[in-house]
Amino acid sequence: MDTSRYWRLDRHPRGNTGFEDALSLHEETLPPLGAGEVRLRVAWLSMDAGTRMWMSPRTDGYQPPLPLGAKMVGLCLGEVTESEDARFPVGAMVRGFGQWAEYATVDPAAAGLEVVDQSVPDMREHFGALGMNAWTAYVGVREVAAVKPGEWLAVSAAAGATGSLACQVGRNLGAKVIGIAGGAEKCAWLRETIGVDMAIDYRNEDVEARLAAIEGGVDAFFDNVGGPILDAVLPNMAHYGRIAICGMVAGYDSDGPMPGPARFDQILMRRLRVEGFFIPDFLERGAEFMPRLRSWLDEGKLTMAFDETRGIENVLVAYERMLTGRNLGKAIVRL
Ligand SMILES: NC(=O)c1ccc[n+]([C@@H]2O[C@H](COP(=O)([O-])OP(=O)(O)OC[C@H]3O[C@@H](n4cnc5c(N)ncnc54)[C@H](OP(=O)(O)O)[C@@H]3O)[C@@H](O)[C@H]2O)c1
Hints:
This protein is an alpha/beta fold.
């Protein structure tokens, strides 16, 4: 095949719906590879909440904004079809930052391209228990939130990809876990499948009041959301607690900065440590995380639900599902 369909960013989107007004699907004839480049036939695309900020004009984010007119960028998993780099031979299964396209063309270093282990029974786990969200959960819970056995760990957006893995990492490390998510169905799944000790439905319950029942307070908070959820957790933190700022999905659709927490005072009053972290800073440590994640996967201690949509033409449907909370677990598109 020498043509490929891809999504192009034409305008900055408004909100988390109606992405078809901002992105359009095109087809191109694939150009010859440049020196050192690799091309893969994308089997699955990862839908990641953080990429929403790349679509905005913000220049103060952790990534520069994607220029209008560019192909939309995202994590891809697929088979190498052409290669100018011997480390990524034709036929290898690879994962890395490519494009929302049928065929992604990448510079391996810029893409963080990796050959993935094909002995894993379900290849999708390279976006699940063995993927970037898992590395994020592992580093965030274990190192940034520094969770110890017996402590209370709270996780927001707990029924999503990163959050459900953070709950399980916390549980596997011996913490008591509180998952905060939208809706009774997600909360039931968190209790019954993910094994949290408490689930809070932030859409229908008073998060601050429910957390107030935790004796001694919340020792560690893995926050994916920011905004009102962070404000509900702050006054319920234990003294000397730790907050790992993983994401601020409540604010990615605004083109400006997210307002600071209204309960900022609690950082001093409770002597909290608050630390942001970003997984590309830890990419070179992947080999160190993988043996433990793989053994947890094999032992059934790290599971992922996949919210799978089919077809490149439906990428925007999947993306909107994820940002509006209709996904359970990891949102992916199978091409
Ligand atoms: N720091 C890093 O390196 C890093 C790496 C990966 C991901 N992340 C962060 O992790 C977070 C989750 O990302 P993901 O890709 O794994 O997506 P995800 O959690 O699978 O999907 C996004 C979830 O966010 C929740 N959500 C959306 N808007 C919300 C709001 N206003 N208030 C509360 N919850 C809201 C929705 O669940 P509900 O139904 O519960 O609302 C939705 O399911 C993001 O903040 C992302 O930036 C950070």
